[in-house]
Amino acid sequence: MKTLLLDDELYCTDVLNILIQKHCPSLEVVAILNDPIKALEYLNHHVIDVLFLDIEMPILNGFDLLGKLPNLQSKVIFTTAYDHYALKAFRFNAIDYLLKPIDKTELKEAVGKLSKSPMMSEPLLQYLSEWKIGKVPQKILLPIGQEIHFVNVDNIICCEADGSYCKVYCEGQTKPHLLSKNLKDLEEMLQLPQFLRPHASWLINSQFIEKIVKSEGMEIVLKNQLHIPVARSKKQDILKFLGIT
Fold first, then answer.
1. Are 93 and 178 members of one domain?
2. Same structural domain for residues 120 and 170?
3. What is the rounded distance in angstroms from the CA atom of residue 141 to the CA atom of residue 187?
4. Is residue 65 part of a domain?
5. pLDDT per position in the chain (245 positions), as tens?
6. Element spanning 23, H or E
7. Is 132 part of a structural domain of the chain?
8. Same domain assignment for residues 84 and 179
9. Most buried of the four, 58, 134, 191, 222, by CB within 10 Å?
10. How many CB atoms lie within 10 A of CB 174?
11. pLDDT (0 to 100) of residue 55
12. Does 218 share its domain with 199?
């Protein structure tokens, strides 16, 4: 598989290239670049199968680069020293996500996934096109177990914290999705006006509110009959948002 390595640090591409030569015979490194602008030009004129993409780069970071290549058909493996980018990486349907310094075993596992994973799908290409122009995507990608699910944002009823995980309740689903990320990560993905945080453990879609139970311990009842507690510190903000006096 024709492979491009992109990282603004020369040392990182040198090390990655050596690891690939030693442990990944299925990959043919056809280009090694340390400038995202040059990489953008290269990818506009060459077809490759696999892109190892750094995230933290000057001028264009890895996500910005993908946003400028909505028709890119390469499979993407992100490389970075910062694990807080993981969830956003999965939103771009990365095959895998490797933390630096890259471990040879994790590299081999990531490359092993290449033959089992499809190229970028139409929903993902639509997502990239919307992200490129600053439009709020209608779908998000949720890494759930070993799968990545495309979920319509408008179908998300609410999300519940569950330790370092969270449960995502969707319309038409009898059971919630268990997402291997915390509620704060998901809240960052769903930065939309209809989503409210009435309680530290809950993020809700206001479109699914059925009624408000005004009492000392106020509750929001959703259309799926979940009763969501409202923290005292959030009570006035929630009432104001809903236009209730």
1. no
2. no
3. 13
4. yes
5. 999 999 999 999 999 999 999 999 999 999 999 999 999 999 999 999 999 999 889 888 888 888 788 677 888 888 888 765 555 555 555 667 788 889 999 899 889 878 765 554 444 445 544 544 444 556 676 666 666 677 788 899 999 999 888 899 999 888 888 887 788 877 877 777 888 999 999 999 999 999 999 877 899 999 999 999 999 898 888 888 888 76
6. helix 10-23
7. no
8. no
9. 222
10. 5
11. 85
12. yes
How many whole angstroms separate alpha carbon 166 and alpha carbon 196?
16
End-of-domain residue from the set 127, 157, 184 = 127
| Torsion over CA: 89, 95, 97, 102 (sign) | negative
**Which of 82, 106, 127 lies at the terminal end of a domain, its last residue?**
127
In a domain, 133, yes or no: no
pLDDT at 17: 96
For residue 101, cis peptide bond before it (omega within 30 degrees of 0): yes
Residues in Cβ contact with 75 at an 8 Å cutoff, skipping those fewer than 6 apart: 49, 50, 51, 95, 114, 117, 119
Residues 71 and 143 in one domain: no
- Does the predicted model carry a pTM greater than 0.85? no
Residues spanned by the domain of 180: 138-241
> Helix H segments across 68-121?
86-91, 104-112
Together in a domain, 107 and 171? no
Which residues lie closer than 8 Å to 175 by C-beta, 6 or more apart?
Answer: none
What's the residue count for the chain? 245
- Cα–Cα distance between 243 and 126 in angstroms, integer? 35
Of 164, 149, 244, 180, the C-alpha closest to 206 is: 244
Q: Where are the alpha helices (DSSP H) in 100-174?
A: 104-112, 122-132
